[in-house]
Each structure stands twice: as C-alpha cells, then as structure tokens.
Design a protein that fits this description.
The protein is an alpha/beta fold. It is built from 13 helices and nine strands.
Length: about 325
C-alpha cells in the first residue's frame, strides 16, 4: 500500500521513511510527488546493475519497514482529531477539579481565563503531552474519545498542539516568501507556490497594514508577525489543536484570526483576559489555584453582550486606523 503513496505524504505521516530512503541510497529531494515505484523507474538498467538494486525487494522492504516501525512506536493509522476530551484531576491543594469531563470538538473555540500563575500553562502542557494521570494535576486527555496514540507524545512531526504567543520575534535573515518556502518544503507540501500565496493573502487580511512577500521577516511589525504566524499555523501546520496566548494586544483582526483557524478544522484554546475574546468562545474554562474550577457555556445573554462589545471594538479599530493615517480625532459622537 505504501509503495503507491506519494513520497511527500508518506514522509509527512511517517517521518522515519526519510531515513529509510537515504539508507537505501534513494535521494528523496524533489520527489515528493512520486511514489516509490515511479522513483525506482527513473533508474536505468545500467544504474540498477551497478548499484545491485533489487526493485521488488525495495518495494516489499518499504512495506515491512513502515509496519515494523508503526508497531515499535505504537502508531495507529492516521486519523484526524475530531474531539479532545479533558478528564479532571486536582488543583494545587489536592482538591478535585470542578467538572466531570470536557469534550471539545474540531472548529470549536474555548477560552481559558484566570489570574496570572493560576495554571493555564499547566493545562496546555497536559494537553500537549496527552497526560494520563501522570502529571502534577492528575488530569487525563483523550483523543477522539480514546486513549491517545503514542505518536502525539513521541513523534516530532505529529505535534498535537501549536502555540501562538503574544511575544513573537524572528531572528532569521529571510524574506517572508523565503521563510514560508522553507517551512512548506520542510512539510513536504505538494503545491508550495499556491500554499504560500494562500498564507500571505490570509495574513494580510488579518494585519492592520499589508506587507509585501519580499519584506524581510525581521522588518515586520508586531501585528504583521502575528498575522503571518496565525495564517501559517492555520494553513500549513498539521497540529490539530492551537493554543493562543493573549492576542488582545496583537494588533490584528482577532475575529478574522479565530475564524481562519476554525475554518481549517482546528480546535482552538485561547488564554485571554479580554471580554470580547472570552465571549467569542463557545465556552470558557475558569482556572483557579492550579485547577479547573468550572466550565461556563457562553449564554444567549452573553452573546448579546458580545454584539455590543464588538461594536465598541470596531469603533476603536476605526479610530486606530484614522490615527495611523495621520487624521485628527474629533468627538466620540462624530
């Protein structure tokens, strides 16, 4: 079966295939759109003889190698993450957490609220490591209602959680397009050009001021950097769960950013102190003393409050835009 899978997709699912290719003197560069049989067919009869290559043996060997590695690593066949379930543990005092079970579906947004140091990062770590009552909180994580596949813990190419921080700085000397091309190539993306175009278009729809693909990433403003990384995470990252840490001051269109992430079937958890963002979420987790104190569904009354909050946000955003353009603000009623 794997012999007919395109190499790019195969390596994306099973990164150890890259090592198998190199070990068998099969250069994978530029062959992500080819399956193994097509790659082997590129060798001339003379090359096959000189390399003492056994085409049938290699194709059979790939099948056996992948199955053996899957068995060794405890990897099941690739399935999408439809739900994330958190089972309760205890807070810093050892008291049971205040909920029975929380299941979050794909394309759902959950906010996390609580004082600084209350345990939001610990909750993220429990999710990222798919805790099984083996962390200080004693929580357990289920994926699709079942004990999680070990790949979420041990495969560097199958990260469960992508994190977007408020503090984001680039240190590499690359333009935006070079940065995205590097990332796309590392992901063995088939349509690199089209993917880069989508990311830049999405990022510019989030940023207050648009940027050019040839702009050095170190020259991007804070808002442009965050817009770029949110678009990159939504479109290019394979992580099904995204944690966003306090984007209230990110200088981007926050509603559009969240819409972009959930449109790509991500599960979004968002630590925030902003009432608008907290109410955009379908529900919110209340963290106190290192534990989940309660979970609140966003009520119809709160959704009506959200409408008013978004009007205020829109008004403030328009004033911010006017200031950027050098205009003089008049009275609020104007």
């Amino acid at each position: 079966m794997h012999r007919k899978t395109k190499l790019g997709k195969l390596i994306e699912s099973y990164p150890f295939v890259m090592g198998w290719m190199i070990e068998n003197k099969l250069d994978p560069e530029g062959k992500e759109n080819m399956d193994l049989e097509e790659i082997l067919d590129e060798f001339s009869p003379e090359e096959i003889e000189n390399l003492a290559m056994d085409k049938a043996g290699l194709m059979e060997g790939l099948e056996v190698f992948v199955e053996q590695m899957k068995s060794f690593l405890g990897i099941k066949e690739e399935t999408s993450v439809r739900t994330l379930t958190i089972l309760p543990g205890r807070d810093k005092s050892g008291s049971p957490e205040g909920f029975d079970e929380l299941t979050i579906k794909a394309s759902e947004i959950v906010s996390i609220v609580g004082p600084t140091g209350s345990g939001k990062s610990r909750l993220l770590a429990d999710i990222e490591w798919t805790a099984q009552s083996d962390t200080p909180t004693g929580r357990s994580i289920l994926i699709n209602g079942e004990l999680p596949d070990r790949k979420w813990r041990f495969s560097s190419n199958n990260k469960l959680v992508a994190q977007l921080s408020q503090n984001m700085n680039f240190v590499m000397d690359l333009t935006v397009i070079e940065f995205l091309q590097l990332h796309a190539e590392s992901r063995m993306v088939v349509d690199i050009e089209g993917t880069i175009y989508r990311i830049i278009q999405a990022a510019n729809s989030l940023a207050g001021e648009k940027f050019d693909p040839e702009t050095p990433v170190t020259a991007l403003s804070g808002g442009q950097s965050r817009a770029l990384m949110i678009a990159d995470t939504a479109i290019l990252s394979t992580s099904p769960i995204v944690l966003i840490d306090e984007i209230e001051n990110a200088g981007i269109d926050r509603r559009k950013a969240l819409d972009l992430l959930v449109s790509e079937d991500k599960i979004v958890l968002m630590a925030t102190h902003d009432p608008t963002l907290a109410l955009i979420a379908d529900k919110r987790i209340i963290i106190k003393n290192g534990g989940i104190a309660s979970i609140i569904e966003t009520s119809e009354e709160e959704k009506s409050i959200l409408v008013e909050l978004e009007k205020m946000d829109s008004f403030i955003q328009s004033m911010r835009t006017n200031l950027r353009q050098g205009e003089v603000l008049k009275t609020i009623n104007n």
